[in-house]
Amino acid sequence: MTRSHKPLLEALQASHSVCLLCHVNPDGDTIGSALALRLALMATGRRVEVFCQDKVPDVFLPLPGADSVRGFDSLSEGERFDLLLPVDVSEAHRAGRIGDALAFDALSARCKGTAQVDHHGTNPGYCAVNDVDGTAPAAGLLVKELIAQLGVPLDAELAACLYAAIATDTGNYSHGNTNAECFRATADLLEAGLDLPAWNRRLFQECAFAQQLLLGEALSSLRLRANGQLAVMTLSRNDFARAGALKEHAETVVNQGLRIRGARMALLAREDETGIKMSLRAIAPDRVDTVAARFGGGGHAQASGCTLQGELAACCDEVARAMEEALL
Ligand SMILES: [Mn+2]
After folding, report:
1. Of 54, 143, 149, 305, whose CB is crowded by the most CB atoms within 10 A?
2. Is domain 6-205 given the CATH code 2.40.128.110 in the classification?
């Protein structure tokens, strides 16, 4: 499949300076896609800056150009661009804020035009040019086509950025959105020199020592409920302290619960400064968003969260009971 990116190409061709914008809590798709586009636009002689409200997660720092991503506090008074280009940003507010203003509004006031490239079906089309395909598994697939249509050949650096984008949004080629286009695109990346084992290890295998120690604490708390259909783990403040771990080290822990054969849902309850944070997961067709909503939280059907106030074990039991009731 090849999509035409003509309106976006025309906007880029008319621009000598481009301000790329990533979404808050950046993932591999927004970062990888923006860094790929940065390299391609620089190769065509354009001035490019990449902005993100939040700092680039450590796991993506090895990507080429990751150290060039700027926070909004680095914007200088007189900085102007021809084009503002959000990448993988489903709604204007997902780019975050600069002081009291939406970052998108504050930046577009410094730019002559706006255009976006995105793959969220819910995108309302908030730019002058909206290159949005809600059926694409990753924004990186659109960016890869765009780079080809800009006439820039793939190389190993571009391939690493695009791999980070595609692999992240497909759950390392395992989620239901993984289609033939993902594999065809990745075949092109391999032909361009992608070092697949090295990047797979950096992006999906490596973690901090403290993260492994924290996982050990969580696994030692693992219990099954509802005849093995619900896996429950807890992490107390003491567990974090023993592991020397940060709260970000707990982010993927809950998924370990779903690895157990027979488990249909998983819950991680962890203490932090805002209360008892709950991460809820389910395997489709089971869903947990309705459970999280009962406790004032929300999220996706199979990945949700909520925060309770109280004692760790009691809060955990309360949410676990609600999840048991939600098992189909
Ligand atoms: Mn994405």
Report:
1. 143
2. no
Q: Give bridge partners of residue 271 from the DSSP assignment.
A: 276
Q: How far is the centre of ligand 1, averaged over its atoms, from the C-alpha of 229 (Å)?
A: 31
Distance 119 CA to ligand 1 centre (A): 6
List CB-based neighbours of ion ligand 1 within 5 Å.
29, 88, 139, 169
Structure token digits, residue 301: 């059907």
Token pair of 60, please?
Answer: 């993506």
Domains in the chain: boundaries = 6-205, 209-326
Is the pTM for the entire model greater than 0.70?
yes
Which of 83, 151, 86 is closest to 116 using CA atoms?
Answer: 86
Q: What's the 225 CA to ligand 1 centre distance in angstroms?
A: 34
Alpha helices in the chain (DSSP H): 6-13, 28-43, 103-108, 139-149, 156-169, 180-191, 196-200, 209-220, 237-243, 289-294, 312-326
Q: Ligand 1 mean position to 253 CA, how many Å?
A: 22
From ligand 1's centre to the CA of 138, what distance in Å? Answer: 5
The CATH architecture of the domain made up of 209-326 is: Roll (3.10)
